[in-house]
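Consortium newsletter contribution from the modelling node. Members have asked for a concrete example of what our holo predictions look like. Here is one, prepared for the nicotinamide-adenine-dinucleotide complex that several groups have been discussing at recent meetings.
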Amino acid sequence: MTTVAHLINGELVTNVGRTAPVFNPSIGEAVRQVALADQATIQSAIDAAKAAFPAWRNTPPAKRAQVMFRFKQLLEANRDKIAAMISEEHGKTIEDAVGELQRGIENVEYACGAPELLKGEYNRNVGPNIDSWSDHQPLGVVAGITPFNFPAMVPLWMYPLAIVCGNCFILKPSERDPSSTQFIAQLLHEAGLPKGVINVVHGDKAAVDALIEAPEVRALSFVGSTPIAEYIYSEGTKRGKRVQALGGAKNHAVVLPDADLDNTVNALMGAAYGSCGERCMAISVVVAVGDQVADKLVEKLVPKIAALKIGAGTSCGLDMGPLVTGAARDKVKGYIDSGVAQGAELVVDGRQLSVAGCESGFFVGGTLFDKVTPEMSIYREEIFGPVLCIVRVGSLEAAMQLINDHEYGNGTCLFTRDGEAARLFCDEIEVGMVGVNVPLPVPVAYHSFGGWKRSLFGDLHAYGPDGVRFYTKRKTITQRWPQRASHEASQFAFPSL
Ligand code: NAD
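And here is the predicted structure:
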């Protein structure tokens, strides 16, 4: 069985101690293993990044951007290969894998604007013969810890921007589907990135703790579940690091009686069941305003769920693949059991799905619950599977109260034709990313991504303008060149005009 190695200082390193199996979830079998870094391995990555930093920091931003231009070309040239690698280990369909890669490439494109992004601000004559400017300088060695559900896109939210800002990066990807992440990082060297500027270390809690504890690591970006986000935020900030930790979600779609229900149902199908529901922006709750809306949604959703094309992620033309692991499948089935036990109406049950030729794969079929109430665990908790819950309310205000009371605030969407309702929703909803007739309002690369409440810990959102702020520290320089002959008296009052 082959081993996915670490990438340290431009070299593949397999000083194998502990390992973990990597599965193909479509067939339910381990296909390779991944090395799990110990403290010494993490330290060697930190040493490599630290050694690379002085030269990289002083490399002109335009030269750093040229590496990203070549990287983008290599990503495009390797699109099919990368999509196949993602699908094999994650289980998402090939088309979905291509989509996530494309969104990641858009972050590389944004990073190509480094000289413009780092321009700073300048004022001549802020005082007599005094000029002042702000400079955005790199932090040094920074690290990112990423989840399994977007093995290409989420790392690409982080390191292209961190690197063009002049930092050296250590990436700790998910140990469940590490191959595409690893391959993509290697392309950076082909694009001309100096050794040590990017390093990839695989691992679990031990590797993450070593990154948290290392004083050389100045900033941590994390994307994953909320308990781990909270842990990394509190442990990292305690040690004086800059931390941005994006967590879990429970995304509601509100459907008003005036919405175009056919389009709404089509949008809900993709947003709830795409990627088997394993997206932090997946719609997992529909809040139907009025019983009539709820009844019609159920009537239209049921045949579409029955018609979902489900199979091995590596095939084309499918709607949905398996869940990522056997444990994930069991957890999702457990939530369906609990929904039944707590009194929700199970309209479509995906627990018994079997896929011909993939009988040992980690599949759960599309599932629909109606008459879900806020105290049920299927409503409160993140299921992260193909389970859609309908909650019935009487008004837009009641729908908004429900969303605002939820502990998560990642994404939400309103389906309506009413501009006044849409404006109220956008103004008053306590959620970081809002769609109006857009089910997955994932911001484009030149905006920034982030939720509110327990979906994000930290002050800045990921990528885009907030990403530049996160990966740089501002230095403001005030400069005066007095004329040689001038006599300057001491000034004891606070300087002002
Ligand atoms: P996870 O929290 O299990 O793992 C994320 C990362 O943390 C991985 O690299 C993992 O190795 C590491 N990790 C796991 N256990 C750890 C521990 N005890 N201590 C330190 N590190 C640990 O998340 P996942 O299952 O890979 O991904 C799914 C979760 O990520 C969902 O909750 C989803 O909502 C969330 N997510 C959020 C966003 C967002 O932008 N808010 C995006 C994608 C995924």
